[in-house]
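Record type: ASSEMBLY
Status: queued
Input:
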Amino acid sequence: MSDDDHQSLKAWGRRSYVPATTTRDGDRYVRVSRGMVLSPRRIAGWLALLALFVAVPDIASLSSSIQQRVLHQGVLFGLAAVGLNVLLRHTKLVSFGHAAFFGTGAYTAAVLASQFDVTSMLLLLAAATLVGTLMAGVIGFLSLRHTGLYFSLLTLAFGQLLYAIAQGQSYLGGSDGLPVRPGEANRATLFGVELSADVYSVVVYYLTVLVVVLALFVMWRVVNSPFGNALDAIGQDRTRAQFVGIPVRRYVLAAFVISGIYGGVAGGMYGLVQQHVRPEATLYFLRSGEILFMAILGGFGTLVGPLVGGVVLVFLQDVGRDFTNYFDALTGIVLLLLVFGFPRGIVGSLQSGSRLRAAVSTFSDDPAIVGEWATEAWTSLWAAVGRARRNLRMLVLGVR
Amino acid sequence: MLKATNLKKSFGQLVATDDVDVEFGREPGEMVFIVGPNGAGKTTLVNLLTGLLEPDDGNVVLTRTDEDGETVERDITNMPPHERVKAGVVRSFQVVHVFEEMSVRENVRTAVLSEQDLLGSAFSFSDEHGGVEALVDDLLERFRLDDQQHVVADKLPHGDRKLLDVAMSFALDPDVLLLDEPTSGVSARETDYVMETIVNVSKAEGVATVAIEHDMDLVSEYADRVVALHQGGVLGEGPASILETDDELRRVLLGVGA
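Status: finished
Output:
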């Protein structure tokens, strides 16, 4: 599709508030909602993905190797990563402390449930979101006085501060953490209805699906809005952004708070799912690193990439644990592969215009190209070995 | 009108701006060139006027006529850059500052959205504001960038990048526009094209424009007034003809005469 075609397609998508099922003349495109124009194939793809997402509890009951809990955790950390991605993708700031908001959300739900006996699921979730937002406001206000490395270090420091507090305070359960088991049924209720253990896990799962779909939709609107445009501008040239009239600091703080909201919601949901919150699992700085890794793994240039990255990483870790004691090495290897081979992440590499896509299409045009690739790879490998030998000889024997 | 009085700025021992009094935009569309040798304090002066630097002393006052025809004076000495832009003082940089990953159109759109106070809107699409798109089309045409509107900024030839930078500045509807070397790095063939485009638009819009420029041929051709700086202070000012007649100016700027 040429640029101009793409532009006119976009304009067509913007024109009406009413979702239309009519196709544009000539090309078969469907306007799903205002501003969202998809080809029928993509719609089918999305629907299939959503159906899969919804069917997980059923699939999980069929096979013991697919654990709903693992997927569920992956989705929630992935949701936090979607939030983090506002900073990473648009304002180009790297936060090393995003577990802070995830943990704040989780702990808010836990404290309300165990110390104040709040039983309503929705109330716990709302409170988790609210407190996560406030926390993001405070930490953002203090961290965003700096940019670059110092910003990253400050977010790391604040994250660890919260971790230390959660570890040390007996009110917060210390290193044992707190249960999220309010009321007589020992479980949160939905609209005042007590749920049995089986039903509870399914209900919480579907609540997550609902939250995630809603959160992705909102994020899609935000990043395509003038505000999202302003954040892109700030990320690409901060000085110019100022001299275009953007109150940079205020906007970046807003972006930081938005990313914190996503962390808070995800953390609150996590509390409801796990029914127990520990500092190690929610606030520790390795969690922040993982959330960052998820965004990069899934493709931080895309909207859904971080979510995919979350599911994949948590799944990998779970599988890795079964295979070997060195499962952390597995994530390391994946990260190396990613940086050297697929810097655009999983979703980014599957998009059109990516190197992987290009390679696949050359391959389908002419399968014989594989021979050429192999020769090329061999030549460059041989050259690398040659360089390494020369360097080693110089190190050992000195330059002659 | 932008007026600076007793403006001073030092960096340690170096006095970059030494008690400067200048006025820009005495009449709408006035084209003023700031000239002077390297280190004369030209860029520092522009930085002080636009808020990238804060002066040690002195003040900057912006005078404009409001809708009722009354003259309003605003002291903008310590105003942050983004507020100055909103007040009507806009600049470009010697090294092109544009949003490199956006297309030409998106760059200009960002500036127009800002001028229309729409950047805070989080729940509309950035490309669906009809009025904005019309303004973007108009600017792209005036700056002769419409053929390249879907090209990503960092793939653009240098002369067009300069024009894009200036187009974005014009999109902000300035009263006073300060351009730090709009033709630097532009090939000799293109300098006239770039400067002519800028002057045409600023005359048509009545935007008081101030440009730092080293090319004396361009200055003589396009200047309504020239301000010459030397060692941080104003050495002289007047019509472009002073570059021919003022001996001291000629000695400092061109190294001719005794």
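Annotation: The first helix of chain B runs from residue 42 to 50.
Annotation: DSSP finds nine helices and ten strands in chain B.
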